Amino acid sequence: MSPLTRFEAIKPFYVMSVLERAQELERQGARIVHLEIGEPDFDAPACVREAACRAMDAGHTHYTHSLGLPELRQAISEDYAARYGVSVDPERILVTSGTSPAMLLCFSVLCGAGDNVLIPDPGYACYPNFIRFVCAEPRLVPVREEDGFQYQVSAVRAVMDERSRAVVINSPGNPTGTIMPSDTMAALAELAEQGLPIVSDEIYHGLTYVGRERSILEFTDKAFVLNGFSKLYAMTGWRLGYLISPERYMPALRKLAQNLFICAGSVAQWAGLAALRKAAADVERMRATYDERRRYMLGRLRDMGLTVAVEPTSAFYILANAKRFTSDSLAFAFDVLEKAHVGVTPGMDFGPGGEGYIRFSYANSLENIREGMDRLERYLSDLGR
């Protein structure tokens, strides 16, 4: 595959197109209610900001170990032990400048040209693009509303072949806000034990409101974990993530990381250490606030005729079925933006299985969400006339 062909295969991230148009409207004087972007509206906790200042004052502004600060990797190991009861050697942890580089590194060591990776449909919009970038093929596994937007293991097996190199799971999930049942995770872990690694995207762990999330490492050590600080600690702009890998892949990952990135930002790493050790109360405050918003938005969407058959119990998203209003979620999202001045995410961003759905983010204030719901209700009322 030529470089040009490879880049042409990468699709736009449509939510960003919605955001960019919303920003144009804002520059023209419109007041937009942003329910499209999955970014916490909170600032990073004070302990995080203070740790960053202390790191700069102390001169901790140089390269770190390519795997990340030993102190931070130890703290991540301790966090997984405390939350999930699993033992993770800090030497199996690679700190990265955000979770996206971790994903790139992971797929790079797993895949070659002609290989494939199994991903959920609908699922996070960037998975297929990362897979295509390393010249592999994303294999879509339908996750249906009637199944709680969760994998059926039989459907996973149906698309596997000898060139399958991994299956991606995302629980809590984007765009669905749902949690994978433990029995499904256990069944998928059996595939890992049989030779098909799991890549578990755990970036929304800690943002759960009903029940609890499980780490894939509770079921198998033949798995990669993608995680970071952006969502749980409201540290999106700090660009700090990490990859937990089976030991045998670490030499290749380390070598690739040294060449591509050298290391993650030193100041951000010291800030991440403070987040893990000192920000528990801040996280709980944010989590409780998200839950209040979740319950309010869920009720409003259902009241106005948008079906939410599967209650989202985690992350900060609601994926609503809008098929009674549209068969073109992208056109619908832009129409809502232009006429109601509310930013929403088209379901088609998340794969063919997302068409006809709209994703709403409640990472915004309750006041803004209330106004956004009022505007959307008027918009839908006008559609029905």
UniProtKB/TrEMBL annotation:
Keywords recorded for this protein, A-Z: Aminotransferase, Pyridoxal phosphate, Transferase
A biological-process GO annotation: amino acid metabolic process
GO MF terms held by the record: pyridoxal phosphate binding; transaminase activity
Domain annotation Aminotransferase class I/classII large: ranges: 32-376
Necessary cofactors: pyridoxal 5'-phosphate
Presence of keyword Oxidoreductase: no
Enzyme class at the top of the EC tree: transferase
Pfam families: Aminotran_1_2
EC number: 2.6.1.-
Entry keyword annotation includes Ligase: no
UniProt family annotation: Belongs to the class-I pyridoxal-phosphate-dependent aminotransferase family.
Protein name, per record: Aminotransferase
Species this chain originates from: Desulfocurvibacter africanus PCS
